[in-house]
Amino acid sequence: MQPVSSALSAKAQAVRLVVFDVDGVLTDGTLTYGADGEELKHFNVKDGVGIKLLQAFGVDTAIISAKKSSALSRRAHDLGVKHFFPGIKDKWPCLLELLAELEVTPDEVCYVGDDVIDLKVMMRVGLAVTPADGFWMVRDKAHHVTTAAGGRGVAREVADMILGSRMSLEEAYVKAMLPEFEVVRL
């Protein structure tokens, strides 16, 4: 993990909710279709560990995606993501409703997005993050650009940044070594 500034660490420390876009963040953005037209997605296992670590330390996680797919629904379920919103083109109103439900302020949100559809949200939250290969306009507006490209460990890097602002990562990763870590909790 790259070193973070004290200002970025303070933003990370305040985070109570991390919201992920999917295509270009949790995937590399490639769209693959099977013979029957089913959309196939490739997810990184390291990202799954990062998402589960956030949850294990009391940080809520959400997925808001403009697309719907059965592969995405399955992945969200497998990771125990309770706040899953597929098919959302205007993400800000959706996030506002979630913030009210969770009693979280925008300053306590980390949003991870990669393209212009995400800017409306990213400009209004406490910590805006984009992958290394995020669209240039998004990289220019983000508080932090990961070293990882989309689908290559972005969520894990975000989790490390947030948890690392609160404790040693060695301490955090002790939970990932426990057998119950792999249990899905919804």
From TrEMBL:
A molecular function GO annotation: 3-deoxy-manno-octulosonate-8-phosphatase activity
Keyword Transferase: no
Binding site for substrate: 23
InterPro entries: CMP-NeuNAc_synthase, HAD-like_sf, HAD-SF_hydro_IIIA, HAD_sf, KdsC_fam
Catalytic activity: 3-deoxy-alpha-D-manno-2-octulosonate-8-phosphate + H2O = 3-deoxy-alpha-D-manno-oct-2-ulosonate + phosphate
Cofactor(s) the protein requires to work: Mg(2+)
Residues forming coiled coils: none
Binding-site residues, Mg(2+): 21, 114
Enzyme Commission code: 3.1.3.45
Listed GO biological process terms: lipopolysaccharide biosynthetic process
Top-level division of the source organism's lineage: Bacteria
Keywords noted in UniProt: Hydrolase, Lipopolysaccharide biosynthesis, Magnesium, Metal-binding
Reported function: Catalyzes the hydrolysis of 3-deoxy-D-manno-octulosonate 8-phosphate (KDO 8-P) to 3-deoxy-D-manno-octulosonate (KDO) and inorganic phosphate.
Subunit structure of this chain's protein: Homotetramer.
NCBIfam families found in the cross-reference section: HAD-SF-IIIA, KdsC-phosphatas
Membership in a protein family: Belongs to the KdsC family.
Protein name per UniProt: 3-deoxy-D-manno-octulosonate 8-phosphate phosphatase KdsC
